[in-house]
Specification:
The structure is a homodimer of 185-residue chains. The first copy, chain A, is mostly helical and 185 residues long. Chain A folds into two domains: 45 residues, Arc Repressor Mutant, subunit A (Orthogonal Bundle), CATH 1.10.10; 127 residues, Tetracycline Repressor, domain 2 (Orthogonal Bundle), CATH 1.10.357. The first copy, chain A, contains nine helices and no strands. Chain A is elongated. At the A-B interface, helix 6, helix 8 and helix 9 of A face helix 6, helix 8 and helix 9 of B. The structure holds a DNA duplex (30 and 30 nucleotides).
Chain lengths: 185, 185
DNA sequence: CAAAAACGGTACCGATCAGTACCGTCTGCG
DNA sequence: CGCAGACGGTACTGATCGGTACCGTTTTTG
């Protein structure tokens, strides 16, 4: 057990929160499955909410760097984000977007968890805008939001249908978007 | 108090579940805000899960008949579904799609609530296919799933951005979809 | 009109929730 | 080597969870 208690807590909490939901997972479960003592948890995180925020912030960083890495590896084209999504949808432990799930579960928009989740999505939109600007697309800011809408639609649909195909379908939609708006009026 | 206890329970539970989430709302809250006695609740619904299912089934019927009515009133064109969505997004008590929220909150795909929510989405896809078939679109079955993806994407985005604009943006995406695939190879 | 069903209110159940306090032990570092 | 901080384990708190049992009253209905 070379890993520190704090890291084990974050890893266990992230796994359980993603798989079953934040509200559905009690402190007891996290303590049992991580092997961390009760006092140690509250020494690192004053409350469950603080643990939730820490988990989401870590996941935000990891998820976005993963996306950038995959897009890079697939050629750097904006459409590659949908190929990256398809990879994630294929995992059988896929359970949608942790940040969408958090915004839905933590209904209050002013709650810390909700804010962190919303901030993540904005950062993703910013990244998409960078990609689209680099690809010399017209109106990259607007197109980035269209891409984000397609990504979230694909994620929710994949969660519902339990297949990776929505990624390919969203990609086709994004293609028609780019080709249709290329010759601007 | 002309309304029966059962109806008041369904109405109160639906409102609270939608606004704050199923898990976040306890039986106590529903009893207090509906003015129904404890025994009466368990006489009509053996458990909270049964109440949840009954609420979702009622909402499914009402939501789909509302959509059909709005689309009819807006001319019957498939794209009208996005105009209907825009109306819903404008309400300040909009909190996304109750069925998406339920599938996320009730993570287990085999749970009764999750199944009812998934069944609702399938019925919406069926309705979209009818609309697209009537509009003589090529491959209506596939296009219906594309429309559903765009609807869910718009709903999640509207929840995130807290504006009705994602409906218009999803509609534009659907338009390019229809015009691009009209002249099939 | 009277029997029956539906009703609202209250007390209670065991289980679980997040969080606190204190314990003895282990470990890394000066 | 010694000690300070990090650690795991246990016992406990008050609050709340879903659910049961029983109360007397109101409303419906045959």
């Amino acid at each position: 057990m070379p890993v520190k208690a704090r890291d084990r807590l974050l890893a266990t909490a992230e796994e359980l929160f993603y798989a079953e939901g934040i509200r559905a997972v009690g402190i007891e479960r996290i303590l049992a499955e991580s092997g961390v003592g009760r006092a140690s948890l509250y020494r690192h995180f004053p409350s469950k909410d603080d643990l939730v925020v820490a988990v989401l912030e870590a996941r935000d960083r990891r998820w976005r760097s993963w996306l950038a890495e995959r897009v890079e590896a697939l050629g750097g084209h904006p459409l590659a984000v949908f190929d990256a999504l398809a990879e994630r949808f294929a995992h059988n432990d896929f359970r949608g977007c942790a940040f969408i799930n958090t915004m839905i579960e933590s209904a209050d928009p002013d709650s810390p968890a909700h804010r962190v989740a919303a901030a993540h999505k904005e950062r993703v939109v910013d990244y998409l805008e960078q990609l689209l600007t680099a690809a010399e697309v017209t109106e990259p800011a607007l197109q980035a939001r269209q891409f984000a809408l397609l990504m979230d639609g694909a994620i929710v649909t994949a969660l519902r249908e339990r297949t990776p195909t929505p990624a390919a379908r969203a990609r086709r939609l994004a293609e028609t978007l780019l080709t249709a708006d290329d010759p601007a009026p």
